[in-house]
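Appendix B, Record 12. Input sequence as logged:
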Amino acid sequence: MQKGNALKEGNLINTLFSIAWPIIMANILQTAYQLIDTFWLGRLGANAVAAVSISFPILFLVLSLGAGLTLAGTVIVSQYKGAKDQKMIDFSASQTVLIVFLVSILLAVLGYFSASPLMNLVGAGPEILDDSVTYFKVSSWGFVFLFMFFVFQSLMRGIGNVLLPMYIVFGTVILNLILDPLFIFGYGSIEGYGIAGAAIASVITQGISALVGILILFRGKHGIKIRLKHMWPQFIWVKRMVELGIPASLEQSSRAAAMTVMVMLVTSFGSEVVAAYGIGARILSLVIVPALGMAIATTTLVGQQVGAGNIKGAEKIGDLSVKIAFFGLTGIGLLLFVFAEHLTAFFVPNDPQVIKDGARFIRIMAPSFGLLGVQQVLNGLFNGTRFTQASMLISVFSLWMVRFPLAFVLSQRTDLAFEGIWWAFPLSNFVAALVAYIYYKTGHWKLRTLRHRGDWMSTGIG
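Logged structural output:
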């Protein structure tokens, strides 16, 4: 196996970055969907940004319920890639596509019909309620397309083919950049739809990317070939996939739910603070992209090493990923600290109070980004060894037992007011990184992997 050989030859950094940088670029481009929306909607005013900001955590929550299954596909495919079992790579991919497709349809329907009560639940004010509901309803129709492209990405990443998804994302984001102002403001005979226009533009481009991705998988010329005859659910395989995917889904959904609860805290301070939080959260979503890219690359390479029976190689990848994530993201955090006010003003140029509050949020978070990176890459390592439960428990602990209680106490019981919410982010990042690193160094994950690897690979089922 090429990646395994590269690791044995000592080219760990080159190997890791060859996987990570296209993933990072693809994730940056995908994040650009939200950033482009925020940029153009900011020209409509702070209420438009607030309407999208308040619906974003709910959108992320719904998406995350199915996203864990795509991660399961990455892990399973990467391990069969390490074992050089092409037949099981194709079968696993076919089953993953089917299950994710069914889940995406269910979530799209639920999302559309629950839009209004959900927006009321998170505390959308009367000035933004209608717009937030409209944005959420239109975005819900894109769930199927998003999930289909996500599963394509995940499967390609599992076998190490990371460039192709990046190229597709790049093309669709460029298209979204054109369609966004067109559908928001209109042009000539084309009617503008305001906030709904941003969602319409995203759904169109998501549909194109999904269609291209699924066609590539059916053609089978890029390392994976899915087949309709393999898309009848196999109970034992689905059970194994769910065992991997549910903890990953719970991890991501707990993160999204925590974001939603944070928004409920923020809304009590008014639309300007909601807008500032929305901008800061989007900057955070952009900054977390390198961490997630390193985490996914770690998952892929660790999975391939586990499939090949090389546990020491998996540990070497983990050690290197931790160092790169910590120092790299700390550097990015320092840059964002310096330019925080300029970044906030870029999104909402005509509201001094939003600029001030948003910049403060960024500056409080920024120094802890390296710690965030450490937690993410270690979660990636645990996922690559099929120990998705560890990632879930670390995330749930840091978000629900540290971040939210701190945010509530500091914002409601101290003079910090809404800035108490800001401070909960770096403090929880520190605790999460510390817990993940201590557990990693205990070595329990290695013993667990050695104990169960034979069962995973000998059954012939993902």
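Residues 2-458 form one domain.
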